[in-house]
Amino acid sequence: MRREKVRVTIAVCSIVLAGAAYASDARAECSRKTLQKLTDTYVKAQTAGTPAKVPLAKGASYAENDKTMDIAKGVLAGPLKIDFTRSFYDTTQCATFTEITAATDPHPYVIHTRMEATKNGKQVSKMESIVTDAGDWVFGAAEHLAVTKVEKWDEIPKDKRDTREAIQAAADAYLNNWGDPALPVPHGTPCSRLEGRMSTAARNPEGQTCTMGAFPQKLNVTNRRYVIDETMGAVDIFHSFPWLDAGIPKDPGTPASQSFRVEGGKNRYIHEVTVCTSPGCGRGRPPGAPPGGPGAGPGGPGAGPAPGAAPGAPAAPAAPPAPAAPPAQ
Questions:
Q1: Tens digit of pLDDT for each residue in 37-64?
Q2: Could you tell me the maximum CA-CA distance found in the chain, to the nearest angstrom?
Q3: Which DSSP letter does residue 43 get?
Q4: How confident is the model over 223-256, as pLDDT tens digits?
Q5: Measured CA distances, 253 to 127, 152, 222 (Å)
Q6: H or E element in which residue 119 lies
């Protein structure tokens, strides 16, 4: 009987050690350096308009705005003058995220791309992009570029890094609050949001301007896919944005991506790109009208809070016949 127990103990220990060794090997193979090479290759492929340069693994999938397609027929098929990029590297999941801003290209874009790699990090097993351009939610590549390129998303010192769980929790809290405005969201000070062309930092660069007013109805944000980078204190979430696009059913919603910089467990920066099926998601803003500017009107998409309202309060009610307004920006 004792011999049986010894054998069982040895077997269990062997399995645990083998599992630990496998996990260690996987991490060693899917290194930050390898993932950086993968994103560099992707950016070069997009710059040249040569999708064949992306090292797709056998059976790999490619999608744009949640629609599976041939990579040779998407945005990668055309050369793009890229002004700025920022990437995250998730060595635990062996995945990457890249934000591309092409403001000076004849056809401006802001693109968010996530790639899941094979175990060694050298090939792409799944690639998906949120591709936004004119007509998408508060789109403006030039304004986006002016803000994103001066933000500080550098590496966080090892002794100050948050855990994966803490970084994800801060970002999830922001999206969960859309469904329950009573839920607390850990925003730091300062904190700013870059939503399309609109930056809340313009209100108060050193203040906390990330708090949103409540949506007209509770939203359940589904289909979340994460890339988490503890070294940069960053996470990106691809998801479905309910309600915003008036041209489609409320649920699950339209393709969107949110990027977060988290410092000390609190949000510092939030970026959003969201796809629309009709200009401005059918929310009533005239093309080119700046958020809160001429044509936005009280309560219109992108309008600020009503006069005298507290920071983060909902916008004033829209005057008919404008559609229901998104929360205050």
A1: 999 999 999 999 999 999 999 999 999 9
A2: 84
A3: H
A4: 999 999 999 999 999 999 999 999 999 999 999 9
A5: 20, 31, 9
A6: none
Q: Which residues pair with 199 in a beta bridge?
A: 194
| Least confident stretch, 1-10, 145-154, 233-242 | 1-10
What is the DSSP secondary-structure string of 67-94?
A: EE--GGGSGGGS-----EEEEEEETTTT
d(CA 305, CA 317): 10
Q: Report the SS3 class of residue 50.
A: coil
- 286-315: average pLDDT: 34
Residue spans per domain, the chain: 1-29, 32-148, 160-282
Fold match between domain 32-148 and domain 160-282 = yes
| Residue in the structure block whose two tokens are 């796809």 | 275
Query: Residue 254 phi/psi, 5° resolution?
Result: -105, 150
Query: How far is the C-alpha of 28 from the C-alpha of 31, rounded, in Å?
Result: 6
Q: Please give the model's pTM, rounded to 2 decimal places.
A: 0.82
Residue 119: what residue type?
K
Decide: 68 and 4 in contact? Cβ < 8 Å: no
The domain 32-148 is classified under which CATH number: 3.40.50.300, 3.10.450.50, 2.60.40.10, 3.90.950.10? Answer: 3.10.450.50
* Residue 40 tokens, joined: 């560099």
Per the structure block, which two tokens stand in for 322?
Answer: 């404008």
CATH T-level fold of 160-282: Nuclear Transport Factor 2; Chain: A, (3.10.450)
For the chain, list the strands marked E by DSSP: 56-64, 67-68, 84-90, 95-102, 109-117, 124-132, 187-195, 198-199, 222-229, 234-241, 254-263, 266-274
pLDDT attached to residue 26: 43
Report the candidate in 274, 272, 273, 329 with the shortest Cα–Cα distance to residue 296.
329
